[in-house]
Amino acid sequence: MMKKPFEDECDLRYLKLLSQSFPTVADASTEIINLQAILNLPKGTEHFLADVHGEHEAFQHVLKNASGNIKRKVNELFGNELRESEKRELCTLIYYPEEKLELVKLSEKELDDWYHITLHQLVKVCRDVSSKYTRSKVRKSLPGDFSYIIQELLHERTDDVNKTAYVSAIIDTIISTGRGDDFIITIAKVIQRLAIDQLHILGDIYDRGPGAHIILDTLEKYHSWDIQWGNHDMVWIGACAGNDACICNVIRMCLRYANLRTLEEGYGINLMPLATFAMDKYSDDPCDVYEPKVTSESAMIDEKTLKLIARMHKAITIIQFKVEAKLIAKHKEWDMDDRLLLKAVDYEKGTVMVEGVEYPLKSCRYPTIDPKNPNELTKEEKTLMERLHHSFVECEKLHRHIRLLLSHGWMYAVYNNNLLYHASIPLNEDGSMKKVRLNGKYYAGEELLQKIGMMVRTAFQSKVDSAEKKYAIDYFLYLWCGKDSPLFDKSKMATFERYLIADKNTHKEKKGYYFQMRDNEEVCDRILDAFNVKGPNRHIINGHVPVHVVSGENPIKANGKLLVIDGGFSQAYHKETGIAGYTLVYHSRSLELVQHEPFTSAADAVASGSDIKSTTHLVELSAHRMLVADTDKGTELREQIARLEELLYAYQHGLIKEQDKV
After folding, report:
1. In 348-444, which residue ranges form alpha helices assigned H by DSSP?
2. Residues 600-607, mean pLDDT to the nearest whole number
3. How many Å apart are CA 227 and CA 406, to the nearest integer?
4. Is 315 helix (H, G, I), strand (E, B) or coil?
């Protein structure tokens, strides 16, 4: 508490404002007591995911089971009281209450008895997961219908003989009034809500999988989350802002994975003009090179439709090369002239020159390319792009989802001594921060990420087409595939080579120095220092490059300083990585990396009680149970307490008068 009168007029003005919220000594004192108590609660559980790539069912399941956190709670609470099958059934009920209730009613003969036992079990689980929070926070997380009842059940113990009958009467009445189903659904969702305090997504919600829009619909209603943008998010943000090269890339990737649901059902993007154009220009072209990848989505599509998708795929890919070339030629400072490969093609010989070597092309049919001006769009291509451009920039739902990414996201974040970003920090060969040119100036490290974050928002801030805004919109392409982009950080994006050159040596995308040095503890410490991340147990957490577990790669690098949690959520990566993703769980006792096997389906999880098979790796065990006082939130609360103590001093010494309550 302060011992002398205020000398700073700004401080006194601040305290006068604060006094409006706490108008009396009693109010300020009560708040100090409340905040001091919160400091001594256990740290809330943080949940980290990266590179979910549209796999909405697996994403939603991992949210429901909190990466095994709920299962762990059930095992701790019931131990040998329940058989393994009973614990599995209880977990499934918590994850999928509506669907599981339907199956229970078909098979359970003693339904009232089942309700009675199950409600007691759910209340016990809910009591445990709510124990980390204040009553106020728990109350705010409860839905209106059962808020009072759940509060009573959570805070009354059945081992208190004076309350046993009271608790039993509440549960009996829930059942007798026919509200058992509604109550189970409600309390199951409360358990899911309280099992995770904060969700961190380290980029790449979009592309490959069919349900990026469903993931964002889910996040729109999620209680507390943040995102560090990935390059796949950025290309969609760019498309929404009106960058035609990004629009082409977005459509091309959807066609490459036969993922039309996101575009057509999710956002209502009309692809009929593209289909008509493709059938006209490539009707006699088998477009074998452009056949979509084999996924669960493409497996459900008939052969005729797959052929149409291949033709559309080729059409948008050629347009993409042309549109990208215009931007690359406009921005010489990007140093991307090696991507202007349509000019390097010998259209008579059917070859292309790449880095001084001539390669035969896998496809030589280019009815829309003028060999003399290969980067020029035809009149029909221009008309098509105008229609596609309009569809993206005028799509209300896409804009709503992009606003969601902007309001919850940034290029990086620091939470509780963990530095989060999607891909990399551009480095020089000696491990120092690389200066990257951005709109005529050079920035490195944290300043680079800050300037990029502001630029991203500039593209959406005003209707006025200023030079700054135009540059920001153009720059989305560089963020997607530029060699010094912190979201990409590779020598090139070898799209042309992968499609059209058989020699796989040309497909290689050399990773930046960051990826070569991220197992070096000294380099990681240098990055953490640059971002002012303090503490003995500090980490860098990122994704972007899948960890090849099947080849023996370890996601824990630099002696535990850096954790890579991209294990391949996307089905397209399962064979490559050998698993189906990582998640990271940071609770009050430890930091745990959870390795997941492929998820079958929600329907299978409900019918058989199957869960994602997961293996937990202990990254770090806390010497003591971490409290709110040990977190960033604790630092904020201590600052609030200090200010409230100053307010008390001001009241007690007459510098500010207490106010009468109305």
Report:
1. 379-393, 396-408
2. 70
3. 9
4. helix
CB-count burial class (<10 Å; 0-12, 13-18, 19+) for 170: middle
If DSSP codes are grouped into helix, strand and coil, which group holds residue 413? strand
pTM over 0.85: yes
Distance of CA 368 to the CA centre of its chain: 39
In this structure, are strands 614-621 and 590-596 parallel, antiparallel, or unpaired?
Answer: antiparallel
The Cα–Cα gap between 449 and 150 comes to: 45
Q: How many helices (H) and strands (E) does the chain have?
A: 28, 17
| Structure confidence by residue, pLDDT tens digits, 129-186 | 998 898 888 888 888 888 888 888 887 665 666 677 888 888 889 988 989 999 999 9
CA dihedral (461, 463, 466, 470) in degrees, to 10, reads 80
Q: How would you classify the pairing of strands 418-421 and 198-201?
A: unpaired
The C-alpha atoms of residue 96 and residue 92 are separated, in whole angstroms, by 6
Return the H-helix or E-strand segment holding 649. helix 632-652
DSSP H or E stretch at residue 166: helix 161-176
User: In angstroms, rounded to a whole number, what is the distance separating the alpha carbons of residues 39 and 630?
Assistant: 8
Distance in angstroms (rounded) separating the CA atoms of residues 486 and 427: 10
- Structure token digits, residue 189: 């969702």
The string of DSSP letters for 188-216 reads HHHHHHHH-SEEEE-S--SSSSS-HHHHH
Tens digits of residue pLDDT in 609-639: 666 556 666 777 777 889 999 999 999 999 9
The whole-number pLDDT of residue 442 equals 96
Q: For the chain, what percentages of helix, strand and coil (3-state, to nearest 5) are there? A: 55, 10, 35
User: What average pLDDT does range 559-588 have in this prediction?
Assistant: 74
CA atoms within 13 A on the CB side of 521: 7
Question: Nearest CA to 314 among 294, 293, 289?
Answer: 289
Partners of 46 in beta bridges: 198, 586
Question: Per the structure block, which two tokens stand in for 76?
Answer: 């701790």
Q: CA 349, 355, 356, 358 torsion: positive or negative?
A: negative
Positive or negative, the CA dihedral 181, 182, 185, 186 is negative
The alpha carbon of residue 501 and the mean position of all alpha carbons in its chain are separated, in whole angstroms, by 34
Mean pLDDT of 13-31: 93
Distance (Å, whole) CA 338 – CA 407: 36
CB atoms under 10 Å from CB of 661, counted, come to 8
Distance, in Å, from the CA atom of 40 to the CA atom of 634, rounded to the nearest integer, reads 9
Q: Report the C-alpha gap between 641 and 651 in whole angstroms.
A: 15
Beta bridge partners of residue 200, listed in sequence order: 48, 226
